[in-house]
């Protein structure tokens, strides 16, 4: 394809994308297909000779696009929705045209420096301590692919730091702390590194957030047994229910035991809300800023920036360099040798890295602080509408305190005779089975998407709001559907006969 | 930005990218800037209110673009050049418009299935064993971000497999094998996992490739000491000189000792040449297909696909699932539970992953097998031209056998009196110093880029050809510049007085 053919195909791509977004809310959220649908319809080997691009682009629209799940759909309420903005798409488009692996400053000076700048802008947007700024010269931040990567990097750095300070401790004695509500990224980091993991309880009474006393008891127990907890993954806004660990108590506890335990804060989803001062106390920002060794939030979840754009800040960049720097001759540069530039290859697991800062810069400038705040508050307001609907319902109850734009609920109908919720009389298992059936019904629909979770044994359904296109009418619509499917579930499961 | 504003900004982006590529060869390869140049010219915080996109796009062209190193420049000969094709840019553009984190089949069925399909197409393009095909139901392949990621995943899976088969072996007794020529990805994987690494010698006499006897001796020594080598990272096409480990001998050795050692093949750069049958023996493809546990090549290096697009195949997908599967309730799906679909989250370190298969599909269809072969052969031919020029030169000599499109050379002038190369009379240190100076001079130029390496103590300069825009005239030009800078170096270092 030559430059003029690219111009033509590029215009067409832009037009097609416009059409897609005009049409998006009329499409199903997810396709009605079975595993294997696509492989069957494609040849089993690449063509011998190249094909005309028009044919390929047409096939994309005919064969691939209808098989996608549309995460930016206004009725997508599953997992946490992914961000999607035109500014980020344009940022990625421009970045694609200047490909470079960005592993050191020289590989593309502007790519490294723009990343340094936008990470500082973001730290300020989220009101993080100046300790985390790249301009501090000590701490700093880098873009990563996902929160799992960020957590893995934090755990690797924590292990390296701990082993440096305690060279005689065998890895078998070292433990990663997570909670029963920590995202699987905590367990996966431990699995990847082959270290023990201890899951601390986050109780229903504490609204699924870790308390200081639970941590203190575990630390005492493990230390008494000769074990070495070296990192705790604390969460602001868990995936299951948006719970927040009591970071204030956690920091008090960690300070009082003084055992060199790294505190990583995973705020993959909820961190974006730190752009709004009214959530600072809720998120324990003061304690994070005082003590946390590392902090992560994902711009590609709630931060208006298309996947991938995870952020990781550390209070001391040396911890990353100590843990991750391998420099053969072919990777040396004058600037790296002189220490005058950040070589981001030492701030992550791989070597090459994308020019992701461009889309972040586009988004930060196009939306400004006000744009982030407005978006967060709009989604929280939409969730408040949903919460009001649930609270007024005879069918549904909330299972956990709603968190920002996330609600967790279940079917727990009021008994028409007694006027009491059925959870008073039914067994936990029976109610779980009922809700599994409700979720199955909801999952079989292609016009909305909600995912499930289990909160300390209680099966429930999540409603996560995050699409820029979601409006009040979509909340009304999904609530109506949930009620219809609830009624149908009660009938099918013969609960209505009682 | 609304849809019509996006259309306008999108057309403009396409036009600007066209302008950039029309102008590319007139631009310097790399910018003449010092660390800190960009941060100084940007505000130190994001704007309070959003800005007009035209202003942002203009600033990109004024401030950011001139600070980039242009890897697709025809005179970029450093590291390994990164691939850049319009088809891949378009693939990424379309993929950006359907953002999804792709961690399981349901997250976007077409994204998972297209990845399964293109990985099989690629396996066939590179003539890998059918064992590695997704359609085998046993082995399979997935797109990863980089070769470092691929190697780290392979090492994690190898460790998991070894520990499963040998549950009593402590991690302190386990060793990763790399060679003195393995990319830093081997050492970095070991560093990340906190396991020992042993560097096997790849001698100058063996053209920097590992031999079976060296491996056999190391295995015997380590096994006798009670250590457990569990993975060897073998390389087809090292970064320093494009060397190839003698995989045939390595496989013979591993089979004869029968110690459950995982063989990972890192063919990050050279693997693309497997599209041409004439390189199969050179790359020891038969031995790879017979024995290797995992194989990686990077489409974003020589494979016509923009960063990132690394590939990783394994002979048994269970090894990945065993090593990397963590499934909390909120990640369960009907298809995952039923085992009818691949959940790619268990095939890499993170959870979320990009929809990278689209650009790969675009590229494979637009170029076909012929397009890959033509591109590889064209670059190899250009390198042959360069080799001829070096061989006819009184200034330069080759340090290693040239490999595909990579040559490694140094300044080693013929003494006009004796008619012999100066390396016969000068010390190794003196000649190294001379070449460090030559490379410094070359590095201070902005019209070409070549990077350096050290081959068992011999400092040398690399010329790696890989841009789709590089033509004969650029080879002539870079050779002329190298000769000029060589003459200048000899004068400045007072070698010409002798």
Automatic annotation (TrEMBL), chains A, B:
In terms of Gene3D superfamilies, this protein maps to: Aspartate Aminotransferase, domain 1 (3.90.1150.10), dopa decarboxylase, N-terminal domain (1.20.1340.10), Type I PLP-dependent aspartate aminotransferase-like (Major domain) (3.40.640.10)
Q: Name one GO biological process term.
A: carboxylic acid metabolic process
Q: Name one Pfam family in it.
A: Pyridoxal_deC
Q: Which UniProt keywords apply?
A: Decarboxylase, Lyase, Pyridoxal phosphate, Transferase
* An example Gene Ontology CC term for this record: cytoplasm
Residues with the N6-(pyridoxal phosphate)lysine modification:
301
> Which metal ions or organic cofactors does this protein require, according to UniProt?
pyridoxal 5'-phosphate
Keyword Transferase tagged: yes
The protein here is known as Pyridoxal phosphate-dependent transferase
Q: What is the source species?
A: Pterulicium gracile
């Amino acid at each position: 394809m030559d430059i003029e053919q690219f111009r033509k195909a590029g215009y067409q791509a832009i037009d097609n994308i416009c059409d897609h977004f005009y049409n998006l809310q009329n499409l199903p959220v997810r396709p009605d297909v079975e595993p294997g649908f696509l492989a069957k319809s494609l040849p089993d080997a690449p063509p011998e000779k190249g094909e005309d691009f028009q044919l390929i682009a047409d096939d994309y629209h005919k064969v691939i696009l209808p098989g996608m799940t549309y995460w930016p759909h206004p009725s997508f309420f599953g997992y946490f929705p992914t961000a999607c903005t035109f500014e980020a798409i344009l940022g990625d488009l421009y970045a694609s045209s200047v490909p470079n692996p960005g592993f050191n400053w020289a590989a593309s000076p502007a790519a490294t420096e723009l990343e340094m700048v936008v990470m500082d802008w973001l730290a300020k947007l989220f009101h993080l301590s100046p300790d985390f700024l790249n301009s501090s010269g000590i701490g700093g931040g880098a873009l990563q692919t996902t929160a799992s990567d960020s957590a893995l990097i934090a755990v690797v750095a924590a292990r390296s730091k701990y082993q440096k300070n305690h060279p005689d401790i065998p890895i078998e004695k070292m433990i990663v702390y997570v909670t029963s509500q920590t995202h699987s990224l905590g367990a996966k980091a431990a699995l990847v590194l082959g270290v023990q993991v201890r899951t601390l309880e986050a109780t229903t009474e504490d609204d699924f957030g870790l308390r200081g006393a639970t941590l203190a008891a575990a630390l005492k127990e493990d230390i008494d047994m000769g074990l070495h907890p070296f990192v705790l993954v604390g969460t602001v806004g868990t995936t299951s229910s948006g719970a927040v660990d009591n970071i204030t108590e956690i920091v008090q506890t960690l300070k009082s035991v003084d055992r060199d335990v790294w505190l990583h804060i995973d705020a993959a989803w909820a961190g974006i809300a730190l752009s709004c001062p009214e959530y600072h106390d809720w998120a324990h920002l003061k304690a994070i800023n005082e003590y946390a060794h590392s902090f992560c939030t994902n711009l590609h979840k709630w931060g208006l920036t298309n996947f991938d754009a995870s952020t990781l800040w550390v209070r001391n960049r040396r911890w990353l360099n100590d843990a991750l720097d391998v420099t053969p001759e072919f990777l040396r540069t004058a600037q790296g040798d002189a220490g005058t530039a950040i070589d981001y290859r030492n701030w992550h697991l791989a070597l090459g890295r994308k020019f992701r800062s461009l889309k972040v810069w586009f988004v930060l400038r196009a939306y400004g602080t006000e744009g982030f705040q407005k978006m967060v508050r709009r989604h929280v307001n939409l969730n408040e509408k949903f919460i009001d609907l649930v609270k007024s319902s005879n069918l549904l109850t909330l299972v956990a305190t709603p968190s920002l734009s996330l609600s967790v609920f279940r079917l727990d109908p009021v008994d028409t005779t007694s006027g009491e919720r059925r959870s008073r009389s039914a067994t936990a298992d029976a109610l779980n089975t009922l809700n599994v059936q409700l979720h199955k019904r909801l999952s079989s629909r292609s016009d909305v998407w909600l995912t499930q979770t289990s909160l300390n044994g209680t099966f429930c359904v999540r409603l996560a709001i995050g699409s820029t296109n979601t409006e009040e009418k979509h909340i009304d619509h999904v609530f109506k559907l949930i009620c219809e499917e609830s009624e149908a579930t009660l009938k099918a499961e013969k609960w209505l006969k009682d």
